[in-house]
Structure formats: structure tokens, C-alpha cells
């Protein structure tokens, strides 16, 4: 553990020295011991060198084995309205996180001008599936992009808590989840549907009601006790229909629309 802490402290110092006061925010790497493991959190732009260096450090076996929690946050910055976390380096590495129980990436807030996603450019391309395959004990996952169908290729996974925004592509996630059998312990599901309301016919990119109806009727939903749905298209009658299919769950509908006035 001493060697791992020393390496993280060196990277922390390097990042701190880059904060010269010219940026509107300060990057930071923070970590603390929890038992014999580490909680690690990073705040900064995913396009900066510091983010790359953190991924390189995490890809080392000695470090990965000591990490219990990973949290990535960022300022509201981006190019063409997109703030993309590219985890390809970590996803394609050979490293495994045998003790990681929490992995969290910044979500897009209604006030943000840039959409946060997980991608090299715009497409998720299975990176979340590759990451979760490296996290056999993961209990809590927060991601700003919908994983593709590879996310459900696992035979079994202990995930209990899932917070997810679909980003730019819903990737038929709700349909795929309804046909899955790998997340039997999932009890908390927070889902934000497509919300790029500036796009022409944006409603066509949202999840069809029929997919949710199928999910609520499926065995894949049996373990869920809390469902938070952030959706702008369903009517009150449709929500009532879903609730009637699962009367035993806590079902919360949130409608939040954000528009920049030019």
C-alpha cells in the first residue's frame, strides 16, 4: 500500500503544480484510505494530460488492486457541446479491479452547456461493457452514456445500483435490459432518457413506451425496488400504466427540460 500511495501522491503533486491560476477551475486528484483500500476521485477536463496520466496510473496492477471507489468529475467544458470521457486506454488494458465497488462518471446537469458522454468521439462503442468486465465486485455504477448490447453479455454480475443517462444514443438499453438475466441484484435504477430537445424530431430518439412496458413485465425487473425515470415524452396515463405493472416499487418520474436562449 505504501508504494501505491507514494505513486498517487507524486501524481497529485504534479497535477497541483499545473494549477497556475490561469484556468477558471483547478484540477485535483484526491484519495483516502478506507480500511485497506482507496477511494480515488479526479476533477478536471478529460481532454487534459492529467486525465491520461490518471488512467495510466490506474492501469498498473498494484494500484488497481487497492482501489475501492473511482469517481470522475469535470467542469462544464467541451468541444461542439460535448464533454467526452475517453476510457479506451483503460478499457483495452489488461488490468482488473478486483476490489472496486463504486465507479462514477460525471452526469450532465440541466444547467450544463455541454453534454457529458463516455466515448472517443461520440459513439460509446462498448467501452462501458469492457470496463464493467474488469470490475467483478462492482455494486454501484454511474455513467453518462447508454452501454450497448455488450453490457449484457455477462453470465452474472453483482451490480445493485445503476444511474445512467443515455447521452446521444439510447442504444436500445431498456429493451436489452428487459431481455437480460445478468443483473439479478439490481434494486435501484435511475434512468435519464434522450433529452437533446434542440434536435429536429428529437422524440424519435427517445425510448419507446413499449420497451418500458416490456421491461416492467420482465423477470429482469423483479429485483428493482426503486425506479427513477427522467423522461419528457410519456403521458400521465402511460406512467400510471407502468406503475400498475409494478405496484410494489417506488416509482419517481422527473421531467426537467433545459433550453439555452440565444
Word description of this protein:
This protein has 262 residues and is of the alpha/beta class. Helices cover 25% and strands 22% of the residues. It has a single domain (2-12, 26-254), classed as Leucine-rich repeat, LRR (right-handed beta-alpha superhelix). The protein contains 8 helices and 11 strands. It is globular. The mean pLDDT is 93. The N and C termini lie far apart (52 Å). It has a 9-stranded mixed β-sheet with strand order 1-2-3-5-7-8-9-10-11. Helix 1 (2-18) packs antiparallel against helix 2 and helix 7 (209-216) packs parallel to helix 8.
What characteristics describe this protein?
262 residues, alpha/beta, Leucine-rich repeat, LRR (right-handed beta-alpha superhelix), two-stranded parallel ribbon, 8 helices, 22% strand
Describe the protein's topology:
Layout: H1 2-18, E1 28-34, E2 37-43, H2 49-58, H3 61-64, E3 67-73, E4 82-85, H4 88-91, E5 102-105, E6 115-118, H5 127-132, E7 140-143, E8 161-165, H6 173-178, E9 188-192, H7 209-216, E10 226-230, H8 236-245, E11 250-254
Parallel strand pairs: 2-3, 3-5, 4-6, 5-7, 7-8, 8-9, 9-10, 10-11
Antiparallel strand pairs: 1-2
Helix pairs in contact: 1-2, 7-8
